[in-house]
Amino acid sequence: MDAYYRKVQEKVLVQRDIICSLLKDPRIIGDYYEAIVRDWVREMVSGAFAVGRGVVLAADGRASRECDIIIYSAVEYGPLFVSGDIVVVSPEAVRAIIQVKGTVSLDNLSDAIASLSSVDTLRPGIWKFIVGFKTNVAYQSLVALCAESKIVNGIFVFASSLRDEKEDISLQLQKLAGILKSVTAPGMYQKSDAGRYVALEAKGREHFEGVPFPEEA
C-alpha cells in the first residue's frame, strides 16, 4: 500500500503543478488546490458522509468562517443549503473540517487555526485538520505549534523544501487517509470526538498516535 499512496500523492502534486503552470492569480490557484484535496477526500470517507465547502451555522445564528472542506453526515442530517460544492450545515452534522494551504508557512498557519477555531466554538469535538501541498518550515515545528493552539487535530503536508524531511513526510497522504477512514467508519459518527492531541497516524479504529495538547497551567 505504501507504493500505492506514493503514486496517489505524486498525482496530487502533479495536479498542483499543472494548475500553477496554467494560472497566475493566487486566489484562483487556491480554489483549485482546495478542489484537488476535496475530490480526494470524497474518495476516502465513508458513503454515509458528504463533502463540501462552506459555512457551519448554529441555530442561534452564529456562523463559522468559511471552511475549505466540510465532511458532514449525509444520512442523519441534510445540509441547510447546498449549491454544487457550496454548503451550509449545522454543527451537529459536521464530522471534520479541513483547511487547505498551498504552502504551509508560519504566516498562514495562524489563519488556518483561526478558521478551525471558529468551528470549534460552535461544537467542540469536531475533527479539525490542516493540509498543505508543501512547507518551508520544519514539520515537527508545525506539529508543535498546532498542539500549542489546542485546536488542530492533525496537520499534513505532501512535500518539504527541507532536504532532510522529504522521507519523513513522504507518506503523509496515507496517514491522513487512515485517520479519515477511521473517523468516518460506520457506527463511529459522534461516538468518538476528536481528542486533545494532534493525531498524526491511525493505529486502528479509535486509536491514534500523535502529540498531546499541553496541559493547562
SSE blueprint:
Elements: H1 2-22, H2 26-44, E1 49-56, E2 67-73, E3 81-83, E4 86-89, E5 94-104, H3 106-120, E6 127-135, H4 139-149, E7 155-157, H5 172-183, E8 197-202, E9 208-212
Parallel strand pairs: 1-4, 5-6, 6-7
Antiparallel strand pairs: 1-2, 2-5, 3-4, 8-9
Helix pairs in contact: 1-2
Short key terms for the protein model shown above:
single chain; 217 residues; alpha/beta; two-stranded antiparallel sheet
Element-level helix/strand string: HHEEEEEHEHEHEE
The portion of residues forming beta strands comes to 25-35%
Number of helical elements: 5
Radius of gyration: 16 Å
Please describe the biggest sheet, giving its number of strands, its sense, and whether it closes into a barrel: 7 strands, mixed
**Poorly predicted sequence stretches spanning 5 or more consecutive residues:** none
Distance between the termini: 42 Å
Biggest sheet, strands in spatial order?
A: 3-4-1-2-5-6-7
Q: Return the structural class.
A: alpha/beta
Shape: globular
The number of strands is 9
Mean pLDDT: 89
Helix content: 25-40%
